[in-house]
Amino acid sequence: MENALSKKLYIKTYGCQMNVYDSGRMLDSLKPLGFELITPAIQACEQDETEQDKYLFSDADMVILNTCHIREKASEKVYAELGRIRMAKEARAKLGHEMIIAVAGCVGQAEGEEIFRRAPFVDIVVGPQSYQNLPKMIGEVRRKGKLVDLEFPEMSKFDALPDISESPISAFLSIQEGCDKFCTFCVVPYTRGAEYSRPVSDIYREALAYVAHGAKEITLLGQNVNAFHGEGPDGTIWDLGVLIRHIAKIEGLERIRYSTSHPRDMHDSLFAAHAEIDKLMPFVHLPVQSGSDTILKAMNRQHTAEFFLKHIERLRKDNPDIQFSSDFIVGFPGETEAHFEETMELIKTVGFAQAYSFKYSQRPGTPGAEMENQVPEDVKSNRLERMQQLLRQQQLAFNQASVGKTMPVLFFKKGKHPGQVIGKTPYLQSVHVKTDKEIMNRICEVELVSAGANSLEGKLVENIFTQI
Ligand code: 5AD
Ligand code: SF4
Question: Which residue out of 224, 288, 295, 329 has the highest number of ligand 1 atoms within 8 Å of its CB and is therefore the one to mutate?
């Protein structure tokens, strides 16, 4: 630890892509202190420990758990993980080495000081709006001991963070944070705070930096990203559609995505962007949560099933190739079999290329947790299983319908087998290709030759290098 040039940083990221972005920015802010990442890459993981984790923990001068509080016993899982890290910290201490442990993200925000009570070996607790203070906190921790920072500061964290210093081929860019929608099941308005949109010029500068460092795809992120209303360079307020149009002008950038949106915030300019901007990928993640108007009302979603279906229709009319993904919650308080069937009908009506489905989980502090008509666990499990079966069928059908087609695939990762490279289609399908050509970090035309529910096999079409 004394050698300021070689400090090892372990970051474990849970949950959504916003956390992936935040972890990247934490790394950027710690690099000037000499920290180097020892995890292979920053990506969201499952809550389970792996053998690799054990090894990496024991090597780390600093461990950051960037946590998620959205569902199921998130805090308990963090405490369990902290228990494992504690052993590594104690082992290092015996050898005279330091290990600073920080809990960041939404569990940090929700639990606060409680973390020190239950896990006294933790040094820093920092919320999602204050991690720009990490470098300063590390110095203070050494001088004064434990620190917690859960502020929602006046000055945006984005202004305090250093510039982008590297980029994967597919980069996440946070443009909006927080949420004012207050869906009755959701903790986000409490953990991430009120809605805030970054100014367009800052976003544009960051997008340029990512592309200059090799990004070909940028996903614009926000808890409620299509509620974006950032100050434009002309002093007026720009919405997401206008922002996308602007970013699409960046040369070298080939794909634009955005996530996650709310049906209430689909504005005309966003529909127009889908109709007119080729770089905007024809794949929309639009969470609906339920197909029952009664349940949507209890969830305070402020839209009906029909309202959602009209959006799908309109997007399909403008671009017949467009595909959809969504989020569903089963077993929200008061959900009957009939309400659940309405959701199943909606799924059949749309036909999703992919989707996420969850059992309702009572989040402390949210109105849903206080509702009396909670659905029994076994009923929730049964409905989830039926829903996932239907969604899996639809995903498989979509993948199978892609066989025989040629699509541009963005290659970003090595596969398990020699010569195998993994990429993503415009619809975020995983494609495995075997080749001896150098295609990593490129977009190549691929013929899709076979499909399973989770991935496809493809082969490079001739003359790939004329397509790149
Ligand atoms: N229980 C289950 N699922 C939830 N989600 C958010 N809060 C809860 C909860 N309390 C799901 C929603 C949301 C996704 C990110 O997580 O479907 O769209
Ligand atoms: Fe949570 Fe999304 Fe609802 Fe906001 S719109 S409260 S982030 S589910």
Answer: 329
Nearest atom in ligand 1 to 185's CA: 10
Residue 29: both structure tokens together: 């802010």
Instruction: Determine the Cα–Cα distance for residues 260 and 351; give it in Å rounded to an integer.
Output: 19
- Please tell me the number of the ligand nearest to residue 333's CA: 1
pTM over 0.85: yes
- Cβ-contact 22, 106 below 8 angstroms: no
Whats the size of the chain, residue-wise?
468
Q: With residue 386 as reference, give the H or E element that holds it.
A: helix 377-402
Residue type for 324, please? F
Q: Are 186 and 299 in contact (CB under 8 A)?
A: no
**Nearest-atom index, ligand 2, CA of 180:** 4
| C-alpha distances out from residue 257 to 5, 216, 247, 350, Å | 37, 11, 11, 21
Mean pLDDT by 10 residues, the chain (468 residues): 69 88 91 86 56 68 92 81 92 92 91 91 92 90 82 72 84 94 94 92 95 96 95 95 98 96 97 97 98 98 98 96 97 98 98 96 93 97 98 98 97 92 97 94 96 96 59
| C-alpha 185 – ligand 2 centre gap (Å) | 8
The string of DSSP codes covering 139-196 is: HHHHHH--EEE----SS-HHHHSPPP----SEEEEE-EE--S---TT--HHHHT-S-E
Closest CA to 366 of 69, 46, 45, 47: 69
Give me ligand 1 centre to Cα 361, in Å. 8
Largest CA distance in the chain: 66
**Which ligand is nearest to the Cα of residue 71, counting in written order?**
1
Residue 302: is it exposed, middle or buried by C-beta count within 10 angstroms (0-12/13-18/19+)? middle
Q: How far apart are CA 255 and CA 434, in angstroms?
A: 24
